[in-house]
Amino acid sequence: MRTSVGRSADRRGGIPVGQGVAVLLAAAGLLVTGIPAAQAATDTPTAASVAAQGPETETPSLVTGLREEAAGTGSAADAARGHLKANQGRYRIADTSAKGLASLGTSTDRSGGETVRLQQRYDGVDVLGGQYVVRMTKQDGRRTVTGTSGSYFTALKLDTVTPEVSEETAVARAVDAVSAQLGGGLLKAPDRGGKAAGTRLSGEARGVTILPQGTGVLTRHITVTGTAADGSPVRQEVYIDARSGFAVMQYSGIKTFGTPRTASGGTAAASAAAETTADDAGTSTVPSYVVVGSGTRYNGQKTDLNLYKYSDGTYQMLDYGFRTAESPYSGALLKTYDARGRDVSAASGAWPGGIQPFSSATPEFGADATGAGAVDAHWAANKVYAYYKNHFGRKGLDDRDGFINSLVGVTANGGPYNNAFWDGSKMVYGQGGGDYRALSADADVVGHEMTHGVTEHSAALVYAGQSGAINEAISDYFGNAIDLEANGQSMDDPDAGLLGEDLCTTLSPRECALRDLDNDMTTQKDFVGVTYRGDNGGVHLNSPIFSGALWDMRHALGGDLSDKIVYRALTAYMTPLDGFTEGRAAVVAAAEELGATKAQVKSVQNAFAEHGIVDGWESKLGVDTDTLLSKVNTYSTGVSAANGVYALSRSNEDGSEPYSVWTGSADGRGTATRQSANNGNYNVYPATDGKNVAWAEYASDGVKFHVRPLSGGVDKVVAGVGANVSGLVLKGDILAYVVPDPYYGLQHVWYTDIRTGETSQVNKSYAIATALPSVRDGKIAYAKMWAESDGYKLGVEVFDTATGKTTPMPVDKTRTVGIGQTALTDDGVSWIEDGDAGDTGQAAVKRAALDGSGLTTLTPESGDGSLYAYSLTASDDAVTITTLPPATSWDNATLPKLYQIAPDGRGGAQRLSCNRGDQAYATADTGRRVLWLDGTTGHTDLVKRDRPAGRC
Fold first, then answer.
1. Residues 6+ apart with CB under 8 A from 647
2. C-beta contacts of 742-751 below 8 A and 24+ residues apart
3. 94: which strand partners?
4. Which residues lie below 8 Å from residue 489, measured CB to CB, with a gap of 6+?
5. Which of 651, 912, 629, 617 lies closest to 29, judged by CA?
6. Which of 96, 776, 843, 932 could cross-link 85 (Cys pair, CB 3.0–4.6 Å)?
7. Are 244 and 680 in contact (CB under 8 A)?
8. pLDDT grade, residue 741 (50/70/90)?
9. Which residues are catalytic?
10. Can you spell out the DSSP letters for 574-617?
11. Confidence class of residue 952 from pLDDT cuts 50, 70 and 90?
12. How far lies 633's CA from each of 173, 180, 289, 676, in Å?
């Protein structure tokens, strides 16, 4: 009996780093790693291998080696459901009807095998990631089940699937949640002539979805679209708790190739293989309306292009070449559209108005089409379609010959957009600029994006955490395989594993490439725990680990067999929430099914082992910090500390429980104490001054602010808001917080006297934005933005709640473009100040006395000692700075890291910790002690250090 690989033997809290089933599921936390292995079902068939999932389910995650006649009749889906019903003792699926297991479709391979994908539904509501696959052969009308795989959650038990939160409230809170995540650490003024109002985001309700945490979390699924401040497109999938209205999870639905990391680069690829218009059955004739024209690729090679002659006599980039003369009106259609001058935001999840396919007066497209990237895009799309059809018999991205549209030449805020993406329905390529060609210039970019379409219509790997990293890895793998085949390049070429190497105009391929599949990255030394704040939980950061294993497998087995194995694993084994260990199991099982020898299967296993993807790999991730709480299952609600006490929100082990507020000793002694009610609402954004603890309670009808003495006094509601709030800060009698203003598109600092409940806004004008507050001795420091005749200005103010007096800090309003977090201490206020719009994102850290005197620059904006300052926190003895470099490429150096410096700036800044994962929500305690939420181990840990690590 073969032994198939099951789930990993460790659970991780928060949104997954590793992943498995507890997925993206614990909202906005740090990704979880896998599902613990469980006992196999008691009636495991003797001829098969069964691997069980963890506590969320009794349904096996992978069953191989079956030879059982399908019990159902009729359609393939009926037969699959019949098999699951007849073997209920093995699968533990109670409702095998079409209501409980909705068919997502059946794919058929060349041998007649059928793969049925079934969507789990609970009381008629879809379960996120709940997908189960049944594989069958069919001969003489009889079906035989050969195996099953996927995630089916048997622990679900909800009292109701009717949301208490209205759709309108859910949309509003989803937009606010995305605005907060995209807003960054600095309050920034718009460009001169720009508008301060308007987040440029909107939300659309997608229905009700169950997150499979524990017994299940009912949510409203909202898609938020629009444009970020830097002009990049936004398409966030947000899940709002259906009872309290809190955003428990969000991640990006835009699947990008990745931003180029250099300022230039690239030489042309090798010569291309001949154009193929015949299908895999050998048909050599095409419809009469197919015109074979030509164009010149970026590398100077002239190539044939399939075109269509329009009624006005022009030749358009419409490729009908995969249709046949016998069936001229059905089959593939590949279109390449001229989207130059259109903003990327108008092309993400939408169709820009007025765009038309690239066209030419003659069948020969000239230099304009070459420079725009149209020739390469149209040529490469043909190669991708041909690859999937000729190798696997696949009919396009959806396997139904749906239209394949490519939009070429989009811009960002009128400038270059050096990226490309699949948005769920089409490919979008940036125009490039400066040292970059259009992003369609490299066939592996085109293959990468189109493969995202194949994945979406098969395994539908969720684009976050480890499942997202596998999604990226498979796009890289097939994009590269297609590129090599189309350009006649051997895998023995030293540059064969490069991706994006042809995008640059001056640098060599190796200098230009974004990623290299021929790498030695491993989970032990290179995997980084990342929140959804960056790179969607590490989809690009960690994908080379998995794609490197696939590349090594391709070297060992050869392209033909390896490609078949990966394609079979993707289309017949993998399901949406698979992590690295589940992905490995799928590839190994696919190799065995396709008849790989024992030696070849061993090579597959070795390829993954060489990259560290083995059972229990998560336990080898080390840290240099003291862990106060492990697996807290939260992230975006932050942490607070003061006078030796911490406060944070946490959930239960499986992340299904709404968040409660807990406090404990910041030195790690004793146990944590729950301070908030565990009432089904989300209690978040905790703040403490060491005497009291405050938090926000999210409910369907609003947000309430609670304050409770740490000594055990009464929990008191002191104020509230109707819709949304961000971070609370507390010191003494003053509770301050930020409330978004949807009408003006701004945000405002409010405060409440916790003794009297008296509430006020620090600045009475709704046209003035205030943010990033800190509190001390009845004073509130905050960043401020206001309008003057020559544009918007930024500054820092200190407001005295007792006298109403405001004191401006010495900020040069004529040149400042960004103000970051403020921090009040015993004798002054520190803040982040960005005074140069032309640099790469560095910002200075400054400090002054409460009356504005004694301005000191702790870290400069440029030169030695400058930092990408993003946020800060301070005690009377030290200022701790969170840095966040621009993500021009995804690597560990672009993650948030912590530096600490003395209040007078002497001695310079030192690294607080050398942990390689996310270091976020830092909060200063007494002395030099700092606490934060850390993702290095693959889950959200509350950690601390009492002094800097120094250099790393």
1. 639, 640, 641, 661, 662, 663, 675, 686, 687, 688, 693, 695
2. 742/172, 742/175, 742/176, 744/196, 744/197, 745/196, 745/197, 745/198, 745/199, 746/196, 746/197, 746/785, 747/771, 749/773, 749/780, 749/782, 751/775, 751/780, 751/801
3. none
4. 269, 270, 483, 496
5. 651
6. 96
7. yes
8. confident
9. 449, 540
10. --TT--HHHHHHHHHHHHHHTT--HHHHHHHHHHHHHTT-STTG
11. confident
12. 21, 20, 58, 17
Q: Which helix (H) or strand (E) holds 481?
A: helix 465-487
Q: How far apart are CA 7 and CA 907, in angstroms?
A: 49
Q: Name 276's Cβ contacts closer than 8 Å, sequence gap at least 6.
A: 382, 386, 390
Place of tokens 């194995």: 565
Buried b (16+ CB within 10 A) or exposed e, 334-366: bbbbbbbebbbbbbbbeebeebebbbbeeeebe
* Number of residues written out for the chain: 952
| 475 Cα distance to chain centroid | 15
Give residues with Cβ within 8 angstroms of 788, minimum separation 6: none
The one-letter amino acid code at 337 reads Y
Please report where in the chains the tokens 């709030």 appear, as a residue: 725
Helices (H) and strands (E) in the chain, counts: 14, 53
Asked whether the beta carbons of 49 and 1 are under 8 A apart, the reply is: yes
Nearest Cα residue to 203 out of 183, 177, 182:
177
Residue 44: CB atoms within 10 Å: 16
Look at residues 753, 761, 762 and name the one whose alpha carbon lies nearest to residue 705.
753
Task: Report residue 744's pLDDT band, with 50, 70 and 90 as the boundaries.
Answer: low
Question: What is the value of pTM for the model shown?
Answer: 0.85
Token couple for 428: 């979008």
Show the CA angle centred on residue 868, arms to residues 863 and 872, nearest 5°: 120
Dihedral sign (CA 610, 611, 616, 619): positive
Helical axes 465-487 vs 559-572, angle rounded to 10°: 140
Tokens of 702: 């609003």
Enter the CATH code of domain 633-740.
2.120.10.30
Please give the pLDDT value at position 783: 96
Structure tokens at 499: 């991706």
In this structure, the number of other CB atoms found within 10 A of the CB of residue 864 comes to 7
